[in-house]
Design brief:
By secondary structure, this protein is of the alpha/beta class. It has 28 helices and 29 strands. Helix content is 36%, strand content 17%. The strands form five sheets. Strands 1, 2, 3, 4, 5, 6, 7, 8, 9, 11, 13 and 14 form a twelve-stranded mixed beta sheet that branches. Strand 22 and strand 23 form a beta hairpin. Helix 24 packs antiparallel against helix 25. The chain starts with a strand and ends in a 29-residue tail after the last helix.
Length: 831
């Protein structure tokens, strides 16, 4: 067993970017290909190797005499001068041999080992890991005891493969099977099998097929019908150098463990209608699943053990490595890493300009354009430099008593060319927009409010609005925990089972093949259980709220919830001491599993035989019509209820589908089915009022700084156990007048509303509700199905910065997955 104490890479891309470990982690997760420089760089290789080793040594407070170097390459004259700087250097011909040597060195000499490899193809890439045995790592007298363990290597194996393709395939399949048996592992215990190969060996799809065939070795199919093991591949880097690719693949596997994510599969296997003709009919029983995109790993319990198997195929060998977050000898787990540089590695950045007049703002833009033509910095360095040194402010930006504030412009761009294009658009459009006090924005997300920002305003009002559970969608929020890793800790306090709370199986469906029917079926499965989507809605609201309040330093002065979003509001803003208790109650209570959702037993009592076992006896519809028009004829439709008023011109009606459609037809409007067959916001749901009140009665925290509005009274609710329980119960059993709620919040002075959940329906409705009110209103959505998580949040941030909100922008530029290490005292006394 070996402990990985450091990881680092140095890749020189053809775009002159020097890719270190944080950038490599970004490319790996995104599945983006890294293309190296076409020309060899033997002259710069020694410098790159020194940088690589020094990073590992300096961060862990070690010197060259304290480590042994193992080179996983054939002897190469190009690196001879580098190895001369170390007292002890060994060469190995495979990753497996190198790991064995590292283990032997650590045991015999109590030394850590730097295992390195160079891409011999063009010498433009090198990689290294710092490893040690458990004994040396846990020796309190050693500096190694202070190091952070990124992952454990619990087992490894290698076999030489045959030249014949058929024999080679059988050998690989048998090798994996024997490796599982030898390490007492089965499919349920292996979270992921990560495959990779050198370019001259086999294709990724062929490699994947060997793993798929595993379930049928010796005619014994896996007994598991659960999709418990992710089959995936490393797609960000290709090379014919098998030794380098093997080490880079190991580093990639360690990153998946340390950074808590599941890697997406970009091969053709995923896009086929069937994985393979020979086992097509048995696909449903295979224990594997594929993900088209990477996503966060969500544990089912605290301290859950993760085991990942790296399967690497070279031209004449097959290597397997078992990587875990737990030491196999004593099940000791590494501490989770809640740091990374993923947010800072995002390409698109905000560039901020402030000035007291339009003329000065335009001058600042021209000045920036000139700076771009002269700079030798990268775009990221350029944007970070502007943020750090305040170069975005016009030189004459000095406030006095006669000035009312400043204009703030935020441009979004991912390169200099794009920034220049945004500058041109701003120069052409800003003067007119500011003159008319109108918003200026671009499709990319650049934004200027068109209004002066008051300097040193103590606290700007901000309202969080939480959507209902029907807004959730498949693959929602897949990157949120990667962008804001500290939110892991907050979620762990909310729930011990993040996989269940965030409904991982429903939000991230597991399939072994792709079908045109899957997206629709997956969305229907997500909406099928009200208890499940209610729990997920609360959890995602909690996550987004933590990101904005703790990650971006934006606190709400008021909040409200739409329908079941009211439950999300109370949970997300920390009203309850133990929100995990609510999750348990939602799962166990018959309210949302039997009575008002699922089999809809409430209808059996209300409608009796008229329901007649019809599974589609209830549906909700959105119609564009006013409340008075529906009230005028609803008596003719006894099984139709008006449940929610979204805007003055749109409603939600619910009840028997035939009668709902007939009512809409009589009014001459289209009825759009919402596919959420839940009985809430009407008199039929009132039978569950008492049970709801008991379910939502939870111990509360201390009073909050913000006001929480409820449709139970259209006023702020006192933060007491009874008041919250009554508020939610009334909300879910009575008609909801959303315009009335929003107008009451607006009356308190709120002008900026953030939709804290999926979609932008609430943002759109709020704009329509308040369009006739004097004064500007800004409505923002932070998560949209057609936008990646980063872009959606960045656009929101750009708007808030332009409005003068003090957003914490440091995480957009700074961050690393490399953990700081303490230096051990020179003298350590052990009794």
């Amino acid at each position: 067993m070996l402990a990985v104490l450091g990881i680092e890479v140095n890749i020189s891309s053809n775009s002159n970017e020097q890719i270190a470990i944080d950038a490599f982690d970004y490319y790996l997760y995104q599945g983006l290909k890294i293309d190296t420089r076409p020309e060899p760089r033997a002259d710069k290789l020694i410098s790159a190797l020194n940088v690589l080793s020094d990073k590992l040594l300096v961060n862990n407070h070690l010197n060259r005499s304290q480590v042994k170097v193992v080179i996983c390459n054939a002897k190469n004259d190009n690196i001879q001068s580098f190895t001369n700087t170390f007292s002890d250097v060994l060469y190995c011909e495979s990753l497996s041999d190198a790991l064995n040597v590292c283990s032997q060195v650590s045991v015999e000499q109590s030394k850590a080992t730097i295992l390195m490899s160079v891409d011999g193809r063009d010498l433009n890439a090198c990689a290294a890991i710092l490893i040690s045995t458990q004994h040396a790592f846990q020796d309190v007298n050693s500096q190694l005891s202070q190091c952070h363990c990124y992952a454990y290597i619990n087992a490894q194996s290698i076999v030489n493969s045959a030249f014949d393709a058929t024999a080679k395939s059988q050998l690989i399949e048998q090798h994996i099977y024997d490796f599982f048996v030898r390490n007492s592992s089965n499919y349920e215990q292996i979270e992921s099998i990560i495959i990779n190969q050198s370019m001259s060996s086999i294709s990724a799809d062929e490699h994947a097929q060997h793993c798929l065939s595993l379930s049928y070795i010796d005619g014994q199919q896996s007994a598991s019908t659960d999709k418990c093991t992710l089959l995936t591949s490393i797609d960000c880097y290709d090379s014919e150098d098998a030794d380098f690719m093997a080490l880079l693949s190991l580093i990639s596997t360690v990153l998946c463990v340390d950074q808590q994510y599941r890697l997406g599969y970009c091969g053709d296997l995923l896009s086929r209608s069937e994985p393979t003709d020979s086992i097509a009919e048995k696909c449903a029983d295979l224990p594997y699943y594929l993900l088209s995109e990477s996503t966060s790993y969500l544990p089912q319990c605290a301290n859950q053990i993760r085991q990942l198997v790296l399967s690497f195929v070279a031209e004449h060998s097959h290597q397997l490595v078992l990587v875990s977050n737990s030491d196999s000898s004593n099940n000791k787990q590494i501490e989770p890493n809640y740091n990374n540089g993923f947010l800072a590695q995002q390409k698109m950045k905000p560039i901020i300009f402030k000035s007291t007049s339009v003329q000065q703002l335009i001058e600042a833009l021209h000045c920036c354009e000139q700076s771009i033509s002269r700079t030798a910095q990268s775009f990221t360095q350029f944007s970070e430099n502007h943020l750090r040194h305040g170069h975005f402010k016009h030189q004459s930006l000095q406030f006095n008593q006669n000035q009312q504030g400043y204009y703030c412009l935020v441009l979004l761009a991912d390169c200099f060319e794009q920034l220049i294009a945004q500058i041109v658009l701003a120069c052409n459009g800003l003067p007119k927009a500011i003159s008319n006090k109108q918003v200026w924005k671009t499709p990319l997300g650049s934004y200027c409010s068109g209004h002066l920002v008051e300097e040193n305003q103590y606290k700007k009002p901000l309202s969080f609005v939480y959507p209902g559970v029907g807004a959730l969608y498949v693959n929602m929020g897949k990157d949120l925990l990667r962008l804001f890793p500290h939110s892991h800790q907050a979620l762990n306090l909310m729930s011990s089972d993040l996989s269940r709370s965030l409904q991982d199986l429903l939000i991230t469906p597991r399939h072994l093949k792709v079908s045109d029917e899957h997206p629709l079926q997956d969305q229907q499965n997500l909406r099928r259980s009200l208890a499940n989507i209610a729990e997920a809605g609360v959890s995602y609201a909690y996550l987004l709220t933590h990101i904005f309040q703790c990650g971006l330093s934006l606190n709400a002065s008021s909040a409200a919830g739409y329908s079941m979003g009211e439950v999300s509001m109370f949970a997300a803003l920390g009203c309850w001491k133990n929100p995990d208790l609510l999750s348990e109650r939602l799962r166990q209570s018959p309210i949302f599993t039997e009575q008002l959702a699922g089999p809809l037993k409430r209808l059996d009592l209300a409608w009796g035989e008229a329901k007649n076992g019809n599974e589609n006896a209830w549906e909700s519809f959105h119609i564009k019509v006013g409340l008075m028009q529906v009230n005028a004829i609803i008596a003719e439709y006894p099984r139709v209820y008006i449940t929610i008023r979204n805007t003055p011109e749109s409603l939600v009606i619910a009840g028997e589908p035939k009668q709902c459609l007939a009512l809409a037809k009589q009014l001459g409007v289209r009825a759009i089915a919402l596919n959420v067959p839940n009985i809430i916001h009407c008199e039929l749901s009132r039978s569950e009022y008492q049970r709801m009140q008991s379910m939502y009665s939870l111990p509360v925290q201390q009073k909050l700084a913000c006001q929480l509005f409820s449709t139970s009274c259209y006023l702020p609710v006192p933060i007491t156990e009874k008041a919250i329980a009554v508020s939610i119960s009334k909300c879910l059993t009575e008609f909801v007048d959303f315009p009335r709620l929003i107008k009451n919040i607006y009356a308190t002075g709120e002008r900026v509303f953030i939709e804290m959940g999926a979609g932008k329906s609430l943002s759109t409705w709020i704009e329509r509700i308040l369009k006739s009110n004097q004064g500007s209103v800004t409505c923002l959505s932070v998560n949209q199905k057609n936008l990646d998580d980063y872009t959606a949040i960045l656009k929101t941030v750009a708007t808030l910065v332009s409005l003068g909100y003090p957003v914490n922008l440091q995480p957009f530029y700074n961050g690393t997955l490399v953990r700081p290490v303490n230096k051990i005292a020179e003298s350590v006394l052990v009794s």
